[in-house]
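@channel sequence for tomorrow's demo:
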Amino acid sequence: MLERVRGARTVCSPMEELDLDERFDVVLLGSLLVHAGDPHVRQGLLRTCRRHVAGEGCVLIQRESEGRHENLPQERKIAGGLVRVVSTDPEGPGVRSVYVEYVLRGSIPRRAAVFS
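structure tokens (generated this afternoon):
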């Protein structure tokens, strides 16, 4: 992904270890937190947010809505194809494995395991 970024500074680091020695008005923690199954990784992600948010700033965290992975399979269209959530299983307290297929034009379906 970093190869495709133009006009911005890029940093290659595990998110839970990132330290830019800089603070921001807004820190966005997109799908990382909801897809990290290991509690130590989650704690590291939140520590990274704390290190980088300004005193009066805010941290925006994605969360999944209740029932998000019920009534499966589900699919939704995306640019160039679709995403199909195939199944989900409990892995531990507050953690589920979610099996997803990405179907893009001209490609064979790809499966991904996502923990949320």
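heads up for whoever presents: Confidence is low (pLDDT under 50) at residues 112-116.
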